[in-house]
Each structure stands twice: as structure tokens, then as C-alpha cells.
Amino acid sequence: MSADSSCQPIDPQDIAAFHRDGAVLLKNCLDPYWVNILTQGLDFIHDHPDGMSAGVNMPLRIDQFPAKHSPDLQHLLDDSPIAEIVGTVLSAPVRFYMDQMFYKPPGPIFPSAWHQDTSYYNIEGHQVIRAWVCADPAPRDVSIEVVRGSHLWNITYRPPVGMDPAQDPEGAARLERDFAEGKILIGPEAHEQWTYFDSFLDPSLPPLPNIEANRESFDILGWDYAPGDVLLFHGNILHSARGGAELPHPRRAHASLWAGPDVHYLRRRSQAIPDPLKLYDFAPRDGQHLSDFNEVFPLAWEPRLA
Ligand SMILES: O=C(O)CCC(=O)C(=O)O
């Protein structure tokens, strides 16, 4: 098998669907070489947990920045068509921001709760795209679903993770003070040891609507996913993965986050995921574009001049 690093031309209708709906499934974009690399990389990460692995031996395992520890996943990010696909859909240069692994063992598949990605990270912008790829077939009832068009609602919901001020008012007051004084809430040491409970349920952000209990009130879009497909969704979109269905195999997914030129740094009280490690060296300020940190976020792809 050899690596095909260029992608098939993307149908303009798919590009329009992404911008209209906030998500699109692109069929058969990665050839078997890349699916194999993805599978090897995810299995390696699964077998080598680190301080950023959450839910080891649990029905939902999530790892942050797995490509840092997996040459296969790094190869996928650097050399597969994913960056080109994202850039083509954005019609703009793109930089890689971070990646995650979502590993669900065989059996009744665990759900991933409805959420929006942007509020977990210290970035803001309209050109934030997730590329979600899975090493296994994932029928609609275990793959990603989105609320169609919610990327355009212009609302930032509270991430459903972290310390609840109602449970720990003192801890919350301390965090509020630290934030007001400009202190870093989740520092570089989080790359050694981190949990989803290190963050803060920011009371200034509105809570998420209960979408799952009121599915008929929302325009929910989903797809049957096959290995080789690339699912793109907008960083602001409400999304989840349903659970309950039985799979005879694991559901091994990798999600990478990519940024276009409008994406800038924004220190968030609701930050749940650490900044990329090298970024801490630059003491970023609100409003600085990722291009100001070219060493951390080199250009991954840019459109060819006509
Ligand atoms: O794969 C999943 O279950 C959830 C993925 C997700 O929420 C994400 O990529 O942002």
C-alpha cells in the first residue's frame, strides 16, 4: 500500500452543505493506506495511556494531543489529504490546532454528550473545523450527529465539564480571582497530568439545551460512517454521538481541529482543554491570530494561486 496524499476534487455541493449546515460527510476520501495508519495509531495510543488519557478501561476513553505520541497519527496529520480537505472546504490556508482520540470498546456503545467544541479551547473564530475519522464502521446510531445550522447561532454554551461553583464556592471564587488577575487557569503542567475536572463550569455562559430529551425540537443531522470517509464539522456546532447500539468491534475515532486565518487566541474562563504545549512559551494575548505563532502552528495547507 502507498500513501495517496492528494484528495479527490470535493464536490462544490458538499462545500456549500458544510457552510449551510455546519457539517458534511465526505465519502471515500482516505485510501486504505491511511485507514491502516489511523488504526495503528489509535491502537498504539490506546495501549499507551498517559497523563492526558481520560477514562482508561472505561466505556469512553478520550486522549488529548495523541499525535504527539504516535508517529502514525502525526503522519496522518502531516501527509494525508485531511489538511487539504479542510482548507479546500474553507477556501483558505489552514493550521493544525490539536487532536483527540475517542475510543469506545465493543458492546453497547457509550454516548458522547451534546456539546459545542469552541468553548473548551482558548481560541475563537468562524474558521474552526473538526475532521472526524474513524477506523471502524460507525452507523448513524453511534457516529456523530449535529444540530443543523447551530454553528450560526452566535452563542457560546457552557462546556458540561469541570468544577461546579454550586458545589465548591470557595474553589470557584479562587478561580474567578485568578482569571480576573490574568493568571493561566490550565497551565503547561496539564500536559503531564490533566483531567476534565481541572476546569470550571463557567456560570456566565448559558447552559446547553437538553437536546437528547427533546430531539424532535431540533433539526438533527447524522450519517452512516464508513472507514475512509471524513466527517467535517464546524467548531461552534452542537454535536454528540448516540449510544446504546451494540457493536461487535470497538469504535475508534480520531478528531483533529484545524484553524483558518480568522482564528485568534481568547483566554476563556471555561477553558477545559490545555493550550498546545509550545504555545505557553509565547504568553499569547487575546486577539493574537494563530499566524502570530507560526512556530507552534505552521501552515498545514494553502490554496494554490490560480
Ligand atoms: O467521537 C465521539 O464520540 C465524540 C467526538 C467529539 O465530540 C468531537 O470530535 O468533538
Task: Write up what this structure looks like.
The chain is an alpha+beta fold and 306 residues long. The protein has one domain (18-33, 48-104, 118-227, 259-301). The chain is built from 5 helices and 16 strands. Strands 1, 2, 3, 4, 8, 11, 14 and 16 form an 8-stranded antiparallel sheet that branches. The protein has a 4-stranded antiparallel sheet with strand order 6-12-9-10, with no helix packed on it. Strands 5-13 form a two-stranded antiparallel sheet.
Distance between the termini: 32 Å
Structural class call reads: alpha+beta
**β content, as a range?**
15-25%
What is the C-alpha radius of gyration, as a whole number of Å?
Answer: 19 Å
As for the number of domains, it is 1
Residues in helices, as a percent range: 10-25%
Number of strands: 16
Could you provide a short overview of the structure?
The chain has 306 residues and is an alpha+beta fold. 18% of the residues lie in helices and 22% in strands. It has one domain (18-33, 48-104, 118-227, 259-301).
